[in-house]
Structures are given as structure tokens and as C-alpha cells.
Amino acid sequence: MDLASIVKALNLKVKSGEDKLNTEVRGGYTGDLLSDVMANSKEGDLWVTRQVHQNIVAVATLKDHAGIVLVQGSEPAKDTLEKAMKEGIPILISDLSGFETAGRIYNLLSKKTA
Amino acid sequence: MRVDEKPIYEGTFTVTGGNFDNAGEVSSNIKSVLKRMGLSRDVVRKASLVAYESEINIVSYARKGMIRLRVVPESILIEAIDEGQGIADIELAMQPGYSTATDKIREMGFGAGMGLCNIKSFSDTFLISSEVGKGTYLKMIIKTNNRSLNS
Ligand SMILES: Nc1ncnc2c1ncn2[C@@H]1O[C@H](COP(=O)(O)OP(=O)(O)OP(=O)(O)O)[C@@H](O)[C@H]1O
Ligand SMILES: [Mg+2]
After folding, report:
1. pTM score, two decimals?
2. CA spacing 20 to 30 A to A37: which of A61, A62, A98, B71?
3. Could you give the ipTM of this predicted complex?
């Protein structure tokens, strides 16, 4: 499933990476501890987090994530957004909680592959 | 790794302690270098993690340091060398969950106490030594399983 379909289904606000919405989302990962995300997330994952500091862009770039979803309506820090635009990493905002956001993404992805 | 072997790539990257704004940049550069050489995704993934966690530890706990990268056909050598507080009890520091990260560091998502354990499990050879008040030295080797690299 591409990122655009998830953006539409969850009504996500697109803050950066508008031109990357055709990226294929292969899976997802939820985590706020960067060393956990570094070790356990995979290439093509959509990363759901409440972290907004610019370090999330470095992690998403290193891990080749499909994008980052910030939860509960959190806005990215200014530096985070600038870096994300430079690196071409989609940052999306969900108004839902982390639990609901991840749950809905999970449902969308498992429906597609079932 | 044979000492006399001519490397396909050799480089040193400096890391500044306390500067979280550019944290991860050195690892991103290292990842680009390795990707360009045509190393497998799995090898690049392992080396990127090892470089990243080493870099963040220097930024978090040292004054300054550097990451040295040396690639030969059979393996990647990554060394992280810093000048800083050092580690008093390495066995304790290696334990999953052990962290002395400050609140400021934790707010940015670091401080799970997993970095060193992950470095160890993602490398084929891992060595650590440290002197309190002087600094810390990490040496990691990742096998490439690849004999035909683009130089
Ligand atoms: N280069 C270093 N210099 C001094 N102390 C260090 C260094 N690297 C690690 N340490 C010490 O070892 C502890 C464990 O390090 P480790 O990387 O495993 O976890 P962390 O940095 O606390 O959290 P995480 O890496 O999961 O974000 C640190 O909290 C710190 O006390
Ligand atoms: Mg660490």
C-alpha cells in the first residue's frame, strides 16, 4: 500500500515529503526510544512516534523508513521539519493517539496483504 | 582483517560532544559511503546502526571524538574513539537498560540503555575499553560476505 492511501484513510496532515507519497509502505513500527527503533524497525516501515526532535529524521533516513507519523496532533519542531524537507522524509501528523494510529495502519496493511 | 591489506576505503569523521543538532550526520555519511560501494543491504544496515549508536554515545557522554571507517573486501572496521568521562564499569554499561542519560538526553528519545548491547549484537567482533576521565574506545568488525566491491 502506498503512503498516499494511508494519508487519505487516516486523514493525516502532510508536513513534508509531499512528493514521496507514492512510496510503498511495507510495514510499521511504533516506538519513542530511538535505540529500539534503530535496532528493530525495518526498511519501508511507517514509523509511529511521539518524538518531535530532529533526531527522528536521522533515524528514519538511516533506516530507510517510508515516513514518520507524529501522534496526538503533535507538530514537528522547526529544525525537524527543515531537516525532513532536506532529506525528503515524509512527516505526517495524526490527530489520534499512538495506539489508535498504529491500530488503524496495522489494519490497512494487513487487509492489503491478506 | 590483515593489517597489511590495502583498504578500499579509509576515512575519519569527527564528532562533537553535546551537539545534538547534527547528531546522526556522521552515520548518514558512513551509510552513503558503504552504499556507494555496493555492499549488501544487510551489511549496510548493520554498519549504520553500529556507527549511529557509537556517534550518539560520543555526542551524549564525551567532549569530542571520531569515528574511523576502514573497508577491505572481507570486512568493515568501525572504530569510535573519544575524549571524555570514560566508563567506570564496562560490564554494567553493557547491561540492557542501564543508562546514565540525563533528562535532557532522554527527552530526545535516547537513554534506553540499549545502544551498546545493540552495537554488540549487530557486529561480528566487538571490543570496548575505557579509562575514567580519559575516554572510551570501541572497535567493531562487520563481515561483508562480499568479494566483488566497487571501489
Ligand atoms: N562513549 C562513552 N563515554 C562515556 N560513557 C559512555 C559512553 N558510551 C556509553 N557510556 C555509558 O554507558 C551507558 C550505556 O550506554 P548505551 O549506549 O548502552 O545506552 P544509553 O546511551 O544510555 O541509551 P541508548 O543508547 O539506548 O539511547 C550510558 O548511559 C553511559 O553511562
Ligand atoms: Mg547510547
Report:
1. 0.95
2. B71
3. 0.93
